[in-house]
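Inputs:
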Amino acid sequence: MTRDRAFGFAPGSIGNVGPGLDVLGLAVAGAGDTVAMTWHDGGGMTVADAGHPDLPREANRNTAAIAAAAVFALAGMQRGATLTITKGLPLSGGQGGSAASAVAGAVAANHLCKAGLDTNALLSCALEGEATVAGRHADNLAPSLLGGLVLVRSVDPMDVIVLPVPDALRVVLVHPAMQLRTRDARAVLPEMVSRQVAIAQVGNVAAMVAGALLGDLALLGRGVEDQIAEPARATLLPGFLAAKAAAREAGALGCSISGAGPTAFALVDSLGTGEAVAGAMVAAYAAAGLTATAKVAEIDREGARAWE
Amino acid sequence: MTRDRAFGFAPGSIGNVGPGLDVLGLAVAGAGDTVAMTWHDGGGMTVADAGHPDLPREANRNTAAIAAAAVFALAGMQRGATLTITKGLPLSGGQGGSAASAVAGAVAANHLCKAGLDTNALLSCALEGEATVAGRHADNLAPSLLGGLVLVRSVDPMDVIVLPVPDALRVVLVHPAMQLRTRDARAVLPEMVSRQVAIAQVGNVAAMVAGALLGDLALLGRGVEDQIAEPARATLLPGFLAAKAAAREAGALGCSISGAGPTAFALVDSLGTGEAVAGAMVAAYAAAGLTATAKVAEIDREGARAWE
């Protein structure tokens, strides 16, 4: 009825994707986090390796272990298991690392137990892990689990919609060498916004959704205009506004902060444009005194996967 | 180079369509406003018939005449013209009447002059008329001109996107016998909203757009949840909340206030359900002491038209 061991992998993701604070996320192909699970005697979760010295091995503080425990609870599984986490994503980078670990833990646990949980149940379990470090939102979790561009209409109840994106879409991720804790990046968000800002934000996210579904990359890019999180967080991110201007100049469809930052992202319509945008953004950060690394990636359209 | 006379017709529309305040509009087939135009000696616009005794005949206060004058100005036309307006839509009803008159005036003037203005130019001209009575927003103008469900990403610059809607979609319009001035309905809108409300609003409008484009009527309906305008305006609209509950009970996909009200609308997936919903809503208003009239309509997919 169960397997002897299971692996789960979940890709990184861009949260918010500009104006879609807590609502839009985009899965990024390539790097991701992997969780290996085996049974152990006694109940509960044990973390054999958290994947990075700065990540907690205590099962009730580790996002992957919390998510796995939630799956076990839903599945009525009493046995205990050991997790070995391999981090392919940076910590606190704004690349969806905590969400990827939580999702990988959830799908690994689901596979180990043969629990057969559905998408919403897996998301809710992963959310228990994510919420301990990043707040109660699913804009990284949902694309990490499902792939592609995902709209999170609601978390309670969970209501997520996968939006097909045009084949040509590529993303540029630029990571400046600085730390920004998710907690600090959330603390600067305004509690209240003007009605005009809310309306503009609604229009921009709706345009991004329409652009994705209509295959209109220019429209998708025009929607990447954030009047809530970006203005607040840009003050914490030296070099970002210059990098954004450079990205636009180099042909990006749109550019903003990935999740809570410090990573910046740009949407582009080809690998070639992506490389030009990446170079321009790295140069802009350098001019601001920050070393930055960049990559051009495809959209991960598969989402999380599990195997034995 | 010009025609001797021209007619313009524009259908009514539902503004906001729930959470899409100033951003979403839906054209309704059937009733609309018609503007007939002929030349007259001397410059400027003259209104021969405003279509209703309560509507101004002064050319600088009449939405159709203001829009027509804006078209003439853009086209460099120095001659004057006379407008005869036939109102098929109620005044101050929340059914897009002022917008329909403005759009009909713009397309009639464009046709009369053979000006060949593009969509954005026509919208900007119609906006000059609409702005004098209803504020600077295009969520009624855009569907009235273009048909269907239309997203207004931005007004300055004008950026509107027509969203195909599922064939089965029908709308129920229920008009309780009461007056609510657009000005009063706008005055109760909150100047500031919480970040959580803004995020929920973003998610709901995005879900409506996704539902329309994916052909998912249930999703389209789930998105009809307005946390900004509806709670504020419901206080001015006795019977509305009971009618909304009755609509849901009778099978509506979603229900909210049409534009600034007092008309309420419901989205339904068939004529039959629409008739049941209409009956239930009228009964709910009756129980609240208000006589209401209802109709079930198709979506107008053509928008404004002009002829000689």
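The mean pLDDT of chain A is 96. Flag for discussion at group meeting.
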